[in-house]
Amino acid sequence: MLPLLLLLLPTAHGIGKVSNKPALTQEKLEGVTTASTFVLDQPRCVFNNYSTAVIWLVVALDKDAYAFNNSAGPGTNETAFQRFPDPVHAYMTLNVTLNSYPCPKPAGDITVLRVGSETSCAQDETRPTCNGPLPGPGPYRVKFLALEGSVPVAETDWSAPITLRTAKSPNSIPTTSSGHSAGMIAITTILSILFAILLAGLVAMLVFWGSDSCGSSTFGKQESVSVRRYNTHHVYDQPAARL
Amino acid sequence: MAKSDDCVHILQGLLIFGNVVIGLCGIALTAECIYVVSNSDGPYPLLKATENRDIHAAAWIGIFVGLALFALSILGIIGVVRASRTLLLVYIILMLITFAFEMASCITAATHQDSLTPDLFLKQMLERYQKSDPNKNSDNEVTKTWDELMRQNHCCGVNGPSDWQDYMSAFRLTHSDADYPWPRMCCVLDAQGSPVNLDGCKLGVSGYYNSNGCYDAISGPVNAHTWGVAWFGFAILCWTFCVLLGTMFYWSGIEY
């Protein structure tokens, strides 16, 4: 059993560049990307120098990523999740303090962040920092931003573009039979041939009814053979003798 | 003449033996087809929902063919022992009719087996599972069957949980992707029927969800039934072919 740690932490500090690029988790999870969520590795041992900061996750569409202004405040109309992707081009969520990302990471633990897991606040305008499900397949870019108060103190690089899964329509599943298996063809051919031979045999039997089949000796009903009695002279003489 | 007598006796003996085997196989075929017809557990509702009842038709034909084979084998034994041309002619003609019916049953069963592809079940599952239409009872059957299947066999979907991600489905229309990347039945459940670790299941952590598909659990029993009807019938027909050829040869040599 592997204990799971899903952490939400807030703190942040000035614009120091932290050498970390957020990425999809390397853990073997089935749900690394789904149609509206994706899973990142937690930024462990990354913001060590900013122990009093609140660390936010910034999510933006790929094309709008580099236009993001670090001084945009979280929880405002400009960064509200509910107004993403239009008119808001990037939203901020998953705020936690550094205590939630303890360093070093315990071995064997799965330390991930699931972006898009909160469905209860997805439509709630009073919760602009909601970690709601993503509205489309993307591609998206994310970065971590550390804020102290409202002053950005550190940030990571933007991640590589993350594309989510798209679902095909079930009508695209082919339902016409993909041909017949060898077994079925074998059964059909062999049985048809056998049946044809039997029919031919039956026809031959009826056509040659009455005539001897070639070469075989007739085998009759030996059990009902009757022996003809031949009258001998002896029998005819007897009545004459009586007279 | 003694040699010809021996040949005749050997041929009679062989034909009687062949007919005895046919009679026994006829009874076995009847028993097996009754089992297939009456065995409606497991994935049977899924088959019913595909509206493909061919295996049923093949099994019903098999029941009657089995009984006919048994009766005809007795007729054949009598006809061989009494060396009666009429009896044997009736025997041969009725056997040919039975042969034709059994042939139809075998081919139907084999074709039906071919049609049960994973795609067929996948499409049915995506369109019908958890479809909340109160009018169609058969959809509820499909949902209940799938839930039972996934719970008992610890499997998910037809090919795996990714079926629910790769395709749109009736399930997806009523259950959001973030909360239900795949149905709750795909999670490892505790004794009360709730997921052991819901977050682990949603993330897809191995040990908290079922990662393999259910197609093997569906196709296993169905294939066993179909193979039984199709290939056992085929074996009987091959044996019957030999016996009939021998009978025809015997008939043509009987003195009239």
TrEMBL record, chain A:
Source domain of life: Eukaryota
Keyword terms, alphabetized: Membrane, Signal, Transmembrane, Transmembrane helix
Transmembrane segments: 182-209
Residues of the signal peptide: 1-16
InterPro entries per UniProt: Uroplakin-3
Cellular component GO terms, alphabetical: membrane
Protein known as: UPK3B protein
TrEMBL record, chain B:
Residues annotated as transmembrane: 12-37, 57-81, 88-110, 229-251
Membrane topology recorded in Swiss-Prot or TrEMBL: Multi-pass membrane protein
Subcellular location field: Membrane
Lineage: Eukaryota, Metazoa, Chordata, Craniata, Vertebrata
Gene label: Upk1b
Protein's name according to its UniProt entry: Tetraspanin
Family statement drawn from the similarity comment of this UniProt entry: Belongs to the tetraspanin (TM4SF) family.
UniProt xrefs under Gene3D superfamilies: Tetraspanin (1.10.1450.10)
Record keywords: Membrane, Transmembrane, Transmembrane helix
Entry keyword Transmembrane helix: yes
Self-association and partners: Heterodimer with uroplakin-3A (UPK3A) or uroplakin-3B (UPK3B).
CDD domains per the UniProt record, alphabetical: uroplakin_I_like_LEL
GO CC annotation, single: membrane
Main location: membrane
Family annotation (InterPro entries): Tetraspanin/Peripherin, Tetraspanin_animals, Tetraspanin_EC2_sf
